[in-house]
Structures are given as structure tokens and as C-alpha cells.
Amino acid sequence: MPRYDSYGRQAPWDAAYAHETHRHDDDLTALRSAYRVLRRISTLTALGSFVVYVVLSCHAPGLMGSKIIGELSLGMAWGVLQLVVTFAAVSWYGRSAQRSVDPLARAVRERAVPAGRNAGAAR
């Protein structure tokens, strides 16, 4: 039996609302988790590569100064590789977000703003 507040409206704590709230919380948890995984992987990839570069530059200058091809040293090649790794991490982040995070965010948004009500604001 539904309960009513002092204005005669159905109280928000009835069973149907509780089920909907629980489902919404599960969606938000999944969204946070997917976003967290994306952030960690892309950040650790770019930052990890940079930290290895810096550590090798500080502690193994002979290795980083060794010539690979002509006048190109390993340190210079690794420095240029930092740009490639950073670009790849950002690109991967964008594609993965479109595939995994954006659909979850769209589902959460659609449940938060019912269709027909403020439809223009939910774009």
C-alpha cells in the first residue's frame, strides 16, 4: 500500500521508487568504475613511460647517450617516443570512453530526466 505525504502526493519512499533508486545507484557505480579504469590506464601509461625515461636519464646517462643511428641517441629517440605514447594514450582514452563510458552516462542521464519532461535540456 503506497504512503502519501501531507499534500496527498505519493511518498518517494514507496517500493517502486526504492527499486528505481537502487537501479540508478548501480548505474552510477558502473559509470564511476568505468571512468576510473579509463583514467588509471591512460594516466599510468603516459606517466609510467615518462618516469622510466627520467629515471634512465638520471641513472644511466651512458645508456641514454648511446647512438642508435647516426647522431640519434637512445635518449632523443625515447624523448620523441614520449609524444607518441602520450598521443596514443589520449587517443585510446577517447575511443574507449565513447565505447564504454558514454553509453553508461547516457543511460544514467535518461533515467534521471524522464522523456518528455525537460526534453530539450537533456541533450
TrEMBL record:
- The keyword Membrane is assigned to this record: yes
For this protein, the record's InterPro entries field holds: DUF485
Any stretches that span the bilayer, and where are they? 41-64, 76-94
Q: Which UniProt keywords apply?
A: Membrane, Transmembrane, Transmembrane helix
Task: Note the Pfam families from the entry.
Answer: DUF485 (PF04341)
Q: Is Transmembrane included in the keywords of this UniProt record?
A: yes
The name of this protein is DUF485 domain-containing protein
Provenance organism: Streptomyces tibetensis
